[in-house]
TrEMBL record:
It holds the Pfam family Response_reg. The lineage of its organism: Bacteria, Pseudomonadati, Pseudomonadota, Alphaproteobacteria, Rhodobacterales. The modification 4-aspartylphosphate is found at D71. It comes from Sulfitobacter porphyrae. InterPro entries: Bact_Sigma-Reg, CheY-like_superfamily, PPM-type-like_dom_sf, PPM-type_phosphatase-like_dom, Sig_transdc_resp-reg_receiver. The keyword Cell division does not apply. This is PP2C family protein-serine/threonine phosphatase.
Amino acid sequence: MRKFTAARHPETLADNPVAKTRILVVDDSRLQRRLLTGSLVKWGYEVIEAASGKEALQLCADNLPDLILSDWMMPGMTGLEFCRALRDLPGEQFAYFILLTSKKEKEEVAVGLHSGADDFLSKPVDNAELRARITAGERIINTQRQLCRSNQMIRDTLAELQGLYDSLDKDLLEAKKLQQSLLPERHRVFRGGTLSLLLRSSGHVGGDLVGFFEAGPRKLGLFGIDVSGHGISSALMTARLAGYLSASSPGQNVALIPDGEDSFVARPPAQAIQAINELVLNEMETEHYFTLMLAIVDLDSGLVQIAQAGHPHPVVRRRNGDIEQFGTGGFPVGLISGVSFQQFEVQMHPGDRLLILSDGFTECPDQTGQMLGEAGLEEIIASLGDMHDEAFLSGLLWKLSEFAGAIDFSDDLSGIMFQFNGDAPL
């Protein structure tokens, strides 16, 4: 291999601003190589030579030039075979390939183009035409280089984004653990009834929350919350709201009031929701609002006091299989100050089950987009028969996935099932 470089005189650089283009000349004739090389060096190009297609292929494998001038007819590996082998080399770099040939038939030219050649020059080579073809090739080379740089920038950006995504995904997994920790118990047995809870986010974290708290002697507080939207901001709001209905800090629980004897009793649910509404509007700077169901259960009598703030109607499945829905809907929390909320009562009897479910159930669509609705929910509840506690909630999810035709849901799902047992022994 021989390498030739033009002297960097000011007039040469001015004549050819792309002086660093590297050209490989391939010809079995030493004289033809010298003639081409002399012209190219004079024009300011860096030139290397190869006496055969095999030698040229090795040079390209080691360090691909920008442009190749190759004779077609050579012993051993022809210029056409060299071109095919060149295009099969691994990597994304591109070399502009000009075949030098005395062939002029259209069929043969088409074969050359199909083999990977970019251009042709007829022999004997005219210097003016050669320089014009090289200049045209340089424009394509520069475009290809820009494309490679752009592709590299895209790859670098994607790698950076993947790193950020992996970090965010890790944080979201931790956030999911923290949100699930807001529900430390999924099942509890009381003297008078059993309680089971369900919380399933459509993503890593969600805006649903369910829970319970002691609401005085033989009283149990239940709540279901569904914050508007999905994702991190909704999950952060549920964490804040969990403090307003805390089971571990009754002094901070808005649904409780002191009884004057170092203990706490239940505040009427409607008053509690009204207080929460004002707290949210005064203390939280957020565009989120939420629906809320708050219930106080008397574990001795089975009487349930309920206030509903936009949450789906509570459902009672009687011991005999009858299904009833209660409530008037109400206004969501966190939209307007001064809103009042209605309160109503539900009398439960031994064997009855109370369900408080988020709208992820009734608004779950099937594969045609048709929502389950309240009637569809009643059908599912009826189909579960005598299943109870956690098995009932698992069955509810299974039936919902059958309806939706999928195991993943577009909305968060949360629910409470309380079965009143009265004086039945534990």
